[in-house]
Amino acid sequence: MLFELEEAFCLEPIKVGETVALAFPEVLGSEDQEALARALRHWYRNNRDLKDNELTRDEYVAWKDSFNA
Q1: What are the residue boundaries of the structural domains of the chain, listed by start?
Q2: Is the overall model pTM greater than 0.90, yes or no?
Q3: Backbone dihedral region of 51: left (phi > 0), alpha (psi from -120 to 50 degrees) or beta?
Q4: Predicted local confidence at residue 32, as pLDDT
Q5: Most exposed among 5, 16, 29, 63, judged by the fewest C-beta atoms under 10 Å?
């Protein structure tokens, strides 16, 4: 799946300190790239809010479950 994301969305692994992360190119070239970037930012915010106790585990799980088809 990661290799497919690399091909479809130009994601690439980068090293940030001691962490390996996925990065988009500086300029997003398609609507699909922009949509995925927005989704990842939303996921980041919800995950951060869970860790900061601004979302409960149940709320976080319900948010994730809302994407199941």
Answers
A1: 2-65
A2: no
A3: alpha
A4: 81
A5: 16
